[in-house]
Amino acid sequence: MSSRFITTLSYIVHAVRGGCVICTYRCLIGTFGGGVCVWCTGFSGHATEHACYRCFFTRIIGIPYQRKETATLNEPRAPSRIVAFMRRRRRILIIAGAVVALLVAGLIYWLLTRGKESTDDAQINGHLVMVTARVASHVRYVAVDDTDRVKAGQLLVQLDRRDLLQTLRKAEADLASQKAQTAAATSQISITQHTAPSSAGQAMAATMIASQGIAASEAQLSSAESQVASAEASVRAARDTAQSARTDVAAAQAQIRSAQEGLTIARADVTAAESNATTQAQEEQRYRYMYNLGAVSRQQYQNIVNTNIAAQASLRSARGRLAVAQTAVAQAVARRAGAEALLARANSQVTSSMAALRQARAGVRSAQVGLNQARSRLRQAQAAQYGTETVPQQVHISESQRRAAAAKIAQSYADVRAARLQLSYTTITAPVAGEIAGRNVNPGQYVEPGQALMAVVRLNDVWVTANFKETQIRHMKPGQVADIHVDTYSGMCFRGRVKGIGAASGELLSLLPPQNATGNFVKVVQRIPVRIVFDQPIPKGVVLRPGQNVVVTVHVR
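The structure assignment produced for this chain is given below.
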């Protein structure tokens, strides 16, 4: 096949380039019979006989070649033309070879892909079971983490049970109470039927006693209210006395401050007067000495004596004012002490009056309670008296109450079952066996009903979702064989089959489907999801995880 192809190509090249029959024939001979030609082998063989040169000249000039007798083999123009032609021939051969190679490759690709549809827009898919909280509570602890393998029923999260446990206990207590009420209603029917005749006289006597008790309670209440009024008056008087004592204490305190200020001034005056008196006494002694010596006149000495006498008088006056100020301070302190004692007595009186008032008010409340109890006993006695007259009606009412209590028992049973169910929701277990993914819960966190905590991925139940173009599913149908190549496990081919073809395109099923009712419309090839399942068991050691990219090839023919 290769020899024929080369022969045909040589013939086409020579013919297109204007070669003659001789050269073409010699090329054929060179191909099959081992001959040589300038077109195929260059300057060798019979090229020295000018055969190919003559053919070359005839092809170029287009006229028969007339050989000159003086022509030599070294004619200057012929070899350069032959070399240029050989270069052009080589380029043509390269281009022709490339075209043929592309044609062969296309033929091989068409033969290999005939009857198959392939896409790399495919992923491993599987069941992601979301684990959610069914009650609102705090998380006590989380028993698993991401990538952990779990079994169906294995503990995942434990919520706080205390609140729901109290709810269950309350429901159980209500159930017990309803049972007791039912038993009491049943007993009441029997008692009413047997004790109705003797209860009439007792009810009349109880009515009279209750009426007398109301009168006594009203008298006791009136006395207690009088005591409250007296105690309130005593409290007001004691508070007035205390307020007056507080005023006296404040006035005494102000008097003390004034007296202390006067005492301070008096002490300062005494200090100044003592200093002046000392100075003047010294001056008098000095002048007396000088007067005895005759250094000063009698008038000067007398002036100094008078000044000393005045200083001593001023000192005595300042000391007198100091004593008066000290007396005033003592009197003010004594007055304050008296006012404080009066205030203490007034406060004590207020305290005792308030205690008496509280006691009186307690007596009023006690009397009011006694009156209310007496009135309640009267109403009960009157009701009992009326009840003795309506025994059949009471029996009927008791029977109705018993039936209502029985109905409440059924409701209480339902409440207990509901509380136990809610309590069981605090223990969150794995719904299926698989691997934990997407955990977003931690101890201490508060969860709400319906909040997603984690997901359990079933790795033993996976399939492939391949998105084929709408032009690729023309001959596709369920049951066709598919080759699955997972990017994670390159070199491995998994065998599967088409389980089903999506009812709508993936874009139409998206959260925001396209709206093509606008004026600008661009046609885009849509993709249809195709579900492909594995026909053979997954090899040991191979784990297919949802989301892994795969390349799928479906044999449609």
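Interim note for the steering committee: The first helix runs from residue 2 to 16. Residues 11-22, 24-78 have pLDDT under 50 and may be disordered.
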